[in-house]
Amino acid sequence: MPSEVLPLIIKALIVIGAVMTMAGYAVLMERKIAGWIQGRPGPNRTQIPILGSIPVIGTFLTRLGVFQPAADGLKFLFKEDALPGHVNKFYYVLAPMIAFVPAMATMTVLPFGQYTGADGVTVPIVLANLDIGILFILAVSSLGVYGIILGGWAANSKYPFLGGIRASAQMISYELAMALSILPVFMWFGGTLNLHAVVQGQYQVWTIFAQPVSALIFLVALFAETNRLPFDMPESETDLVAGYNTEYGAFKFGLFFVAEYTHIIIGSGVFVALFLGGWTLPFVPIPDGIAGAIISIGIFLAKVFALVFFFMWIRWTLPRFRYDQVMNLGWKKLLPLAIANLVVYAIIIALIENLG
Amino acid sequence: MAVKEISIGDIGARAAAADEEFKGDEMVINMGPSHPATHGVLRLKVEVNGETVKACDPIIGYLHRGDEKIAENMTYNQFIPYTDRLDYIGPIHNNVTFAIAVERLAKLEVPPRCQAIRVICCELARLQSHLLGAGVYGMDTGALTVFMYTFTQREKLYTLMEQLTGARFTTSYTRIGGLARDIPEGWLGHVRKVVDEMEPVLDEIDALLSRNRIFYDRTVGVGVITKEDAIAYGLTGPCLRASGVPLDLRKDKPYCGYEQYDFDVPIGTNGDSYDRWLVRLEEMRQSIRIIKQAIDKMPDGPFYAEEAKKIFAPPKKKILTSMEELIQNFMIVTEGPQMPPGEVYFEAENPKGALGFYIVSRGGGVPYRLKIRSPSFCNLSIVPKIMPGHMIADIPVILGSLDFVMGECDR
């Protein structure tokens, strides 16, 4: 048994490390893009003593802000981890973990590349190739909201409390639309719930072209699920100061922060796998062996970060919805649209199967 | 020493008298005095039922410095730096308003060049103020980028102020009967360049927000002030005009030679937050129009009133060479500019509304009493009236659309 478990643990550690690093650099990306959009340079000062003083490359990397995530992370680690006197200590400490762990756990079933061995069998590069992968992702990622609700409640303060209420209402509303919007996709690919099979089915036509409405609903719901502007009700800083994490500081806040960005990356990953062809390019076969594996991972990451860029672009451009408008959009527009979309595609697929 | 809390409005009085009325099913949220949504040190006591605001009670006075009392203890010219600190978003306009008020008291006429320079200063201050108002308003609705765009433009205006007055923020540019100094060489060219560059930015802000569906939903029908309410609560400035009352002191009671300039007064129809946004945007365009006209017909001549011998300090060169002027300067510095007894009330169209100075003089160099009518204070008084019934997220939007400055409100 250890000979089977050990490689898995190593793989898991690599993936978690990679996702954490990506989350850190997504923060840098966010700040750089914000600077770019707003006509200012963004982080360009942080240096690492030896690396930063290399003549050309060091200056370039410093200007690019490459060392900023490390500095931010260290700051979170070394700040005093204050525990306010008025909080419910157990839940207060537990909440960031509950927010963080599901964000990481969804990573296990998300395939991010493929490997074709010498025997010609194509396997996905994934920690656990579950047949019900998407169900696992939906189930586990929605656990993350407990972290926010608990955090808002345990902080025993009014602004976090309101943030927690908003978060719970918003997440539940959009969860429905999100789940309904991806059902047509799996119907389209013959009823499988395996993400690898869905990606393999998109060699010719990406699902976003076959099912634009599903993609739209999923994308909107994804914005709402990840608490990004224009849906960042739980932490809308103009009215709720910082929402659910008002009372948090140091590494606990860092966990919330990383969880948010991990959610964005993994959400983008799911969107890419479902609608943008995953690690495939249209009509271009992926070579066999290790090279193919690396190329496929590269393509996947490029698509994911293109989508993350889209997330950030939206955030720094649009104003924020109001709480009741978010609820209206979720229940009165997106949910009926998702149900109609499901019915329409069910009929279309039935017709295709019966006639064709 | 406890801070004395001064509440405005009927709800305010009720809330201050009986705090226990807030105890019930409703939750009381305390917004401010340090909160990202309140501009400056305004404190809002908000009674909410879920997300709906039941009552809202602004508590002011955190920035009270006693400017009116300070004014009684110093000469008229010495008070000019204090006017910088009233509406510190566009400080130079306060300088101008105060100077004109005292000039009315002294029955002084300033030469046309001085008036034209003052007009440019006033309109630059209006641009400064409205740019900040628009940017912060965008931020209050969640669009953070507009803030940066408008602040880039404000930086250029600050540079203009630095070239003109030597200070970016605390300008103190006017003197009783004139200005501290003439405009530097080439300054008008700089002004024209800056306002020319500003026009496309205004269009960009307009394109980013005015037709944005989310922004539209957030502001239309939010914080509606009816015409009658606006007049009853003494609102002035863009807040009043957005409610459909075409009152602009630049048109109705021209001062500084505003009657020579060709400009429009934008008014709103619904009096909601969206109208206030549109009115501010249009006012900026009109300000640019006025500035361009003022630059084009900038007259030559002295920049201070020659007849203000007893009021205006003589030129430095003459002080150093002539006995008469030295004595006069000594008298002006120690005693202040000698004013005739009497009283005067003058108000001008400040960026935020009508800023008025009521001065009672018993002769001599210091005012007997100086009352400041601050537009922010009056505009803020409507908050308890319009806030109930809205959501928590509407509070920053309404506050942003009222565009007040606490430095002026508390003074």
Question: How does this model look, in words?
Answer:
The complex is a heterodimer of chains A (356) and B (411). Chain A contains 15 helices and two strands. By secondary structure, chain A is mainly α. Chain A has one domain (83-355). In chain A, strands 1-2 form a two-stranded antiparallel sheet. The longest helix of chain B is centred in the N-terminal third of the chain and has 30 residues, at 112-141. Chain B is globular, with a radius of gyration of 22 Å. Chain B has one domain: Cytochrome-c3 Hydrogenase, chain B. Chain B is an alpha+beta fold and 411 residues long. Classes of the chains: A mainly alpha (356), B alpha+beta (411). Chains A and B meet through α1, α8, α12 and α15 of A and β2, α5, α6, α8 and α17 of B.
Radius of gyration of chain A over all CA atoms, rounded = 21 Å
| Number of structural units classed as domains of chain A | 1
**Count of alpha and pi helical runs of chain A:** 15
- Distance from first to last alpha carbon of chain A: 48 Å
Number of beta strands of chain A: 2
Residue share in helix of chain B: 40-55%
Shape label of chain B: globular
> How would a crystallographer describe the biggest sheet of chain B?
4 strands, antiparallel
CATH superfamily of chain B: Cytochrome-c3 Hydrogenase, chain B
Secondary structural class of chain A: mainly alpha
Order of H and E elements of chain B? EHEEEHHHHHEEHHHHHHHHEEEHHHH
Helix content of chain A: 55-70%
CATH-derived architecture of chain B:
Orthogonal Bundle
Major sheet of chain B: order of its strands? 1-4-3-2
Query: How much β-strand is present in the residues of chain A?
Result: under 5%
